[in-house]
Queue: 4 jobs
Job 1
Amino acid sequence: MMINYDELIQKYKRLGITDLPTREMIKTPEQIEGIREAGRINTLVLDEVAKHIRAGITTDEINDIVHKKTLELGGIPAPLNYEGFPKSVCTSVNDAVCHGIPDKNQVLRNGDIINVDCTTIYNGYYGDASRMFLIGSCSDVAKKLVEVTKESLNLCVKEIKPFSRLRDIGYIIEKYCKQHGFSVVHEIGGHGVGVGFHEDPFVFHFGKKGTGMVLFPGMTFTIEPMVNEGTRHVFLDSSNNWTIYTDDGGLSAQWEYTLVMTEEGLEILSH
Ligand code: MF3
Ligand code: CO
Ligand code: CO
């Protein structure tokens, strides 16, 4: 890392800006290399899912693919037993926003949309990413929702630079999604990641531009917008205390990358 952390902190404090990363939010080059490797393995696991996902497969079979591929690559699936989560991956279908639990009785059908969210621990480091998959032929609105959600994330990757503010991320995402007629879930966000699964800061997917923590080179975090067809409001499934659904039963899409802030901008470490 070329930046002098203490000097930068002093500079911002003189300007009266106090929402600054802690020292441990700035990863060392060694840590970044470890997170890069974990991210690379995590991407390979999602690639394996992409090869096999189709109508007729159950979400539990997706869990088996993720579990086996992760172990084969020398990793550990981070979701398994994380705060009591019972499976190795989150599979969220249609109106499920996130944290869907793989189930042998849940069969993917033509026209479904599904988010598969994988997190891999490799050599002690974490990579976290998720993708949407369109099963067979989907409605025009489903296809548009999936594309707009992905584009909102890619816009952030393009526009967020070192020393951008944290809430610029959410500003970009919500503005873009609203422009296309969709709503953004507020209750769940991205997070610092790499040495642990969920680190500070919380990464909002909405907000006022020019506010929030200053993003320094060396920070590693996820952006993972959850975008709804209808209302942004959601509820927690009380039968499992994990899965979040849209209040109105409308579709929800999500994409997630693990990112590192370099001196040039955001670099994708897992997708
Ligand atoms: N991978 C999710 C995230 O993006 C977290 C899942 S927690 C679990 O943060 F326990 F459900 F796996
Ligand atoms: Co994730
Ligand atoms: Co995440």
Job 2
Amino acid sequence: MTAQILRGAPIVARLREEVRASAALLRRDAGREPTLATLLVGRHPAAEAYRRAIERSTVSVGIAHRPVALPADASAEVLVDTIEQLGLDPGVHGVLVLMPLPDHLPASLVQEHLAPLKDVDGITPTNAGRLHLGLPSLRPSTPQGGIDILDFYGIELRGRDVVVIGRSNVVGRPLATMLSLRDATVTLCHRQTRDLPRLTRAADIVAVAAGDPGLVAGEMVRAGAVVIDFGVNVVDGKIVGDADAASVAPRAAAYTPVPGGTGPVTNLVLVRNTIAAGLAALEGTLDRLP
Ligand code: ADP
């Protein structure tokens, strides 16, 4: 069997068109340029690389990116104040705080002080809670991009057995919720999971966001399964995922490549969320989000 490679590029192309059209609506109705602000505290290389990728995505759809920077030794007060100012700024429609923050700044500061209507990665208790309640919300862009990929390639979710590996607040856990809202039967695995291969071998779909290169090997997936890989790891100077593509490809029906799979879609979903946030802000409610 030759596995289908679920590339992100065609979804990115489609999302660009969609986002350009909805950005025009926001521009007209808000009378302002749609703007995504990214806040970088310090100079973590992964955060800087992510910001550059976001910058390219905003340019690709013709909306504005406002980079905001704080020094690595910024205090909690300064961070909170900056987040609150961005929340009040009518010229900013979405705010993303780049992770990881320096060690002395807990991520909870961001979760608690970011305006829910500008929370384009769905990290505030309001948006996370709404997602888990099945209410309209701004959804974390990485797992939403994974769902967009599955939908684009026509992979059925209803009634399917899905194993999600990794339970972070930005990928694994919200992905598990999104899949269960789509009527999949979800098993959420993590480091303490006792027998991961037993679970993955029983799954129709394996989604992995663990930050562990090669974690999902071919022998762990059932013949004909679908593998969705959110991993971004640097090994010997190369970007690799959490699945071992060489051994997965001969067994799987389909898999997302790394690079070129879930990653590029994430950034466009973030931009889409920025426009959705801007339109929701005009209405003053998250209730009518798509
Ligand atoms: P991300 O932000 O990409 O989701 P995190 O580092 O925040 O990454 O979370 C990694 C998640 O993956 C954690 O929930 C952890 O339990 C899980 N994980 C990491 N390594 C393994 C592994 N070898 N087996 C199972 N789960 C793992």
Job 3
Amino acid sequence: MFEKVLIANRGEVALRIHRACREMGIKTVAVHSEADANAMHVRLADEAVCIGPARPGDSYLNKSAIISAATITGVDAIHPGYGFLSEDADFAEMVEEHGIAFIGPKSEQIRMMGDKLKAREFAKECGLPVIEGSDVLNNVDEARTKANEIGYPVIIKAKAGGGGKGMKIAYNDQEIGTAYMMAKAEAKASFPSDDVYMEKYLQNPRHIEVQILADSYGNVVHLGERDCSIQRQNQKIIEETPSPALNEAQRKEICELARSAAAKIGYISAGTMEFLFEDGKFYFLEMNTRLQVEHPITEAVSGVDIVREQLRIADGAKLGYSQEDIKLHGCAIECRINAEDPETFVPNAGKVTEWHAPGGLGVRVDSEIYSGYKIPPFYDSMIAKLIVHGRTRNGVLMRMNRALEEFVIDGIKTTIPLHQKIMAQPEYIDGIYDIHWLENNIRNFK
Ligand code: ADP
């Protein structure tokens, strides 16, 4: 097994990876920006290297600084976490070229899936259903013609997009010009390519995704699905497994489709296939070639430590179980808690004067926060994940309410009150919601 792993990330995910390494007897190297010198992931790691100033571009996205840190500390492998460089194929290639193991899939697989159009092609070849859509759109006229062919509403998306950015909806010919220009401008500002394409915009879908684990010997399993339909501005807020929207036959269908597609491309490591689900039909959205924020709900119901499996697979180990051995138990829900005003969603970084995380049976909190910690304003506003597990969905809802009530975070504003309101909505309690439900109803929450 690896002796030492560099964790190329910060926050709760850096901690998550550190914990898996520790339990496997692996030493860890933290990298950090100047703003993160006091962060928990730095305090816990065996070694720490400062890789640059606060701005992510100067530190957590600084590939050569991270490779240098890896070389100096003599690590065997690098875990990229999620976000930052986790889906940067060039980075994965650089790591491989330096004789260091990249904990994730091969760089070619990251490259293919990072191009949403290529990913669509691959999906079609593997027999996965895709949403009706276009190729790269070269100008507004082309976009208008295509939109009329497909039928409004349509969504313009960045080919190299991610994180819910670079997507614009158009409902008619008047809106298509602006949607095209805005999506292109956003893509240019945020991604390596400003190419955009179009998809039919589904009006009431749910977001359903399937967790895959695959080793280097062709063994591929799925660990069930997650429903991530509680979203705001295309970003997930609450996730749950199993999805309350699927019956057993639909669950089996989508999980098996995703598993066989991953096997067909010879996928290696943990990955997630994302789908939209509307009127009983699934449509492939994209594949994420990395660990996902919401992976703990799958860990809760499957008992599989996904990060441990990523480390084992990267080291050449076999999965050690087949699909029949995977048994999923009960239900799990995750609330993403952000340092934001719960009404305006304006980020609210600052000093956490008091911190008390909930505990008890079936409650897990993944967070880098401690009392007295000063949250730097330069990064994502998610500060904690509250994951609750239990035998029944009703029991889990009761437990989530209890855990949210117990959570104390003073000194900053958080989205805990929003989660409490969502948990009290009859539609949420009944599991009847699509990806627009939160945004359409949030104003009426009491
Ligand atoms: P990203 O890579 O930026 O996360 P995705 O393609 O995964 O982008 O889409 C993110 C979210 O955007 C989805 O979960 C869904 O809410 C919405 N979305 C994307 N494509 C469509 C579509 N064709 N119709 C309706 N909603 C969509």
Job 4
Amino acid sequence: MKKHIVIVPGDGIGQEVTVVGKKVLDKIAAKFGHEFTYDEALIGHVAIEATGNPLPDESLEKMRNSDAVLFGAVGHPKYDNDPSAKVRPEQGLLKMRKELGLYANLRPIKLFDELLSASSIKPEILKGADILFFRELTGDVYFGERARSADGNTAYDTMIYSKYEVERIARKAFDAAMTRGKKLMSVDKANVLESSRLWRETILEVAKDYPEVQLEHQFVDAAAMILIKDPKRFDVVVTGNLFGDILTDEASQIAGSMGMLASASIGDGTGVYEPIHGSGHDITGKGVANPMASVLSAALLLDISFGLKAESEAVINAVDQVLKAGFRTRDIADATTPADKILGTDAIGEEILSRI
Ligand code: IPM
Ligand code: MN
């Protein structure tokens, strides 16, 4: 198979982990006889530094003309401490999502058995948890109208959804539920928000086409609680952009670390694959970042965008073998991990590569 992939490392540890993700794609191409060609594109703080624009048109064009994008992270602490900054790295990410029409963000919460003890949740509560989040990605308060009053003392952001936006993400989630345990939880705040009432109404309409799927509605506050109390109750979850952002960070702790979680952002065109973690400036440049989320994002890319199931499984299996061999990065190590098994980004990357 011949495919063209654009690598977009972005900021901070995005630069470090994406190198490993790309090496994994190279290894897969060599092992399975595929031909992958690559290009690189700028986004985020590095793009602002180089061009003044967090997502230059050139980057967007490269992405549009590719078969898939492997993305790292965006962000820089400089902007976090300057709320008045007009140009911000995150604008690049949001623009990429909107321009590429990436309305569905899949965040699988996959728990490797070896990491049961890396979570702060009790192993007996965790074991067997396997959740697939569908976070809507191009609507909600992220893209609604926002403004600040003339005196600067009042501000608003609009939580807004249109029916077609709910319907298309709902269909993706119901379709996925049919291939899994036929259980879907829709998360909203319909006891308070009008946009959530539209959300729920639409979910109920789409549900008519999926009579086999057992549908449950939860308010987001209750869902946040159940996620920690009884994560096994979840199978497929569908929710809006903001609730999904928050719940998936929470759910990352089920997998032990944010450093383990991959995501796929898909829509009608090119798909973008990325770790759910951010740019990690506290550990940038130290060579200790966990590259597994990027590696597992590459696995999702192979599976979802290219339909290469065996190749994708080979990658996941290699990560599993590395964990079984006892190797850990710092974020997933615990008191029982021998010092010589705690590896940096490149070294654990090599362990993964040698097992593909
Ligand atoms: C994510 C991130 C982004 C988001 C930030 C960096 C804008 O937290 O991908 O989850 O809020 O969507
Ligand atoms: Mn987030």
